[in-house]
From TrEMBL, chain A:
Every Acyl-CoA dehydrogenase/oxidase C-terminal domain range: 230-391
Residue span(s) of domain Acyl-CoA dehydrogenase/oxidase N-terminal: 6-120
Taxonomy, superkingdom: Bacteria
The organism's taxonomic lineage, starting at the top: Bacteria, Pseudomonadati, Pseudomonadota, Alphaproteobacteria, Hyphomicrobiales
Name of the protein described by the UniProt record: Pimeloyl-CoA dehydrogenase large subunit
Matches recorded under SUPFAM superfamilies: Acyl-CoA dehydrogenase C-terminal domain-like (SSF47203), Acyl-CoA dehydrogenase NM domain-like (SSF56645)
Automatic annotation (TrEMBL), chain B:
Gene source species: Bradyrhizobium betae
Superkingdom to which the source organism belongs: Bacteria
One example GO MF annotation: acyl-CoA dehydrogenase activity
Pfam families xref list: Acyl-CoA_dh_1, Acyl-CoA_dh_M, Acyl-CoA_dh_N
Sequence ranges assigned to domain Acyl-CoA oxidase/dehydrogenase middle in this UniProt record: 122-213
tRNA processing among keywords: no
Classification lineage: Bacteria, Pseudomonadati, Pseudomonadota, Alphaproteobacteria, Hyphomicrobiales
Record's protein name: Pimeloyl-CoA dehydrogenase small subunit
Amino acid sequence: MELALSPEDAAFRDDVRAFIKDNYPAEMRVPNPETDLSKEQMLLWHRILHEKGWIAPLWPKEHGGPGWSITRRFIFERETTRAGTMPPLAFSVTMVGPVIYTFGNETQRQKFLPRILSGEDWWCQGYSEPGSGSDLATVRTKAVRDGDHYIVNGHKTWTTLAQHADWIFCLVRTDPAAKPQSGISFLLIDMKSPGVTVRPIITIDGSHEVNDVFLENVRVPVENLIGEENKGWTYAKFLLGNERTSMAGIGRSTRYIEKLKKIVKAELPEDDPAHLEFIRDIARVELDVLALEATELRVVGQLARGIDPGPAASLFKIRGTEIFQDITELIHRAIGNYGLAIREHPASANRFMPGPDYGHTASEKYLNSRKLSIYGGSNEIQRNIIAKAVLGL
Amino acid sequence: MDIQFTEEQELLRSSVQRLLRDQYDFDARRKIVASEEGFSRKQWESFAELGLLAAPISEEAGGLGGGLLSTMIIMQEFGRHLVVEPFVETVMLAGGLLERAGSEEQKQCFIPDIIAGKTIWALAWTEKASRFDLANVATIARRDGQDYILTGEKTAVIAAPWADYLIVSARTSGQRRDRGGVSLFVVDRRAAGIELRSFKTIDGRRAAEINLRDVKGELLGKGGEGVTALEACRDRAIGALCAEAVGGMAELNAATLEYSKTRKQFGVTIGSFQVLQHRMVDMFIAHQEALSLMQHLNLSLSNDEAGVSRLASGAKSKIGYAGKFIADQAVQLHGGMGMTDELNVGHYFKRISSINIQFGDPAFHVLRYAQLDAAA
């Protein structure tokens, strides 16, 4: 599906395409960038985009954004995902950045924003706790005022890529007596502070993406509080809203369907009855992507005319993740017996990976993408949001 | 990027809405369906007066030149009101074929009467063994001077009992499943040798089994190229039927949501149960996706884009499954009331079920979508 673009926007699209082709680092083209690259390698593309001024499409110009229209932001998103480039770290650029320029003070903006844009600071998200998943407002990590500092004690979990992080933005309880949503503050904590410990969590795909983060008597300067004390829930919700809108993942799904078709072609002779079943399943998931893409285009068109879809955007998170899970499952099924094997990772420690190259990441992708319907507000929570805010139930 | 409707198109939508709101509520429809003919000549006249029967037909042929976006708008509203009059059969199928394949003489002879609402048409392509295959034609047409003589059987031809004319596919050469060798013919429905056995369809329409024995027919379009013409005709019809289905889905979702907010069990409204809330969210999403894909299809059809036939199959399948899901759940959430003839919900269920059969079911079209990809 192609967009009807003005000549200027079409030229912009061609620029983006050419820029990716000429500049995307070859060493980032690995089977599974999220788990196969070192921190330094992950930051290569970030730095190139920063130099070009394209690192933060969402940000207003005065804070270092490129000042693009909604259409151009969409074109950029579409071209980069189609080309399969690794997106810049979302926790820095998409999440904490907008919170800082929207709710932070001038000192905080000047201190943190340039370092987010340049990639000098790597951020992670201190939201979930062992007892607070979907019910995030029950966070128990405590911050107690002590002169010019808060003393923070608690346990954050599912913290993605905390092993690389320089900073963590945390939801902490500053008023234990208030109602759950009213006693929360939004605090920025230096990961090098004494009392911060990171412990890896290995997931079912064998990879190390997420962590436990323990905070024991960590002293955090009061100047690292965002906005007002006890108003953190407002900032947290704002941030989650940003997270959800870019989750349709059309480009990624489209790339994986192409991969799936190649594998089915190579693995299954046409006279195999299973071939027909795959053909049908592929067509159905392809149509799922097409319908979601058409919906995305409809919403982008509306946005460009000033109509905000609001909470209905949760449907992109729901369908985008369900569809990608279906695709990774089909790929895993398509490689047949080799679906038993899993690549080298901390947990499997496989030195030898059997079967054709195209199947080497199928198992881990299939396993890893089970997370998609859980994180960023589980799909059940997203359905609650639509039920309440769109359907009025 | 999305469809930004023109002022004219918005005007068309609001005038169709007004007409149907004033004259075509559920009780009015019930009386129409129960009448002897099963459709309303009076309604048909008001459609003609409003210009709906001329909407998609080109200005050269005497129409309003609104193209397929105008029929998309009309069909969405028809879907909301469960309109039973043979608009698709007469205007989209017959009108479309006459306009694209007909000779100048045929166009002048037939199209003005369609626009004026004076004639009703039906398209007879299905046969006992054909299922959804346009090329599977056993009816034979043999040359007889200027005319052709048709013999064979056609099945489940919607609107045939009302029709003044039929467009019939028949084989002029080749074997039964050959793509080539099928031609289209205009047949006077009252011609000698035609025998009709009429029946009612599940969605309140009238259809017929047709027996043709040495019936005179007039060639429409190039001989032997009927399947190609029918395929393009089916694509357009799919665009219209998908729009109709999406209109019906919107009504079902609205009715179900409303019901869930008023119906009480265990002392609370059933809409307060999370399992039903999530079901209705999935119905909402299914409708949103179907609406987007339906608009995308009709835009592509009106721009005559490459690969649009594959897209039509894809949309017919995806929207068919979505419609089935919404209709199933609307009946389920209405409980026993959903089963009653009295409530409109079951009638939307039946219309969506019929749409899912017409011109191929979702399973047929998903495979066609896949196979056209492999062929590309």
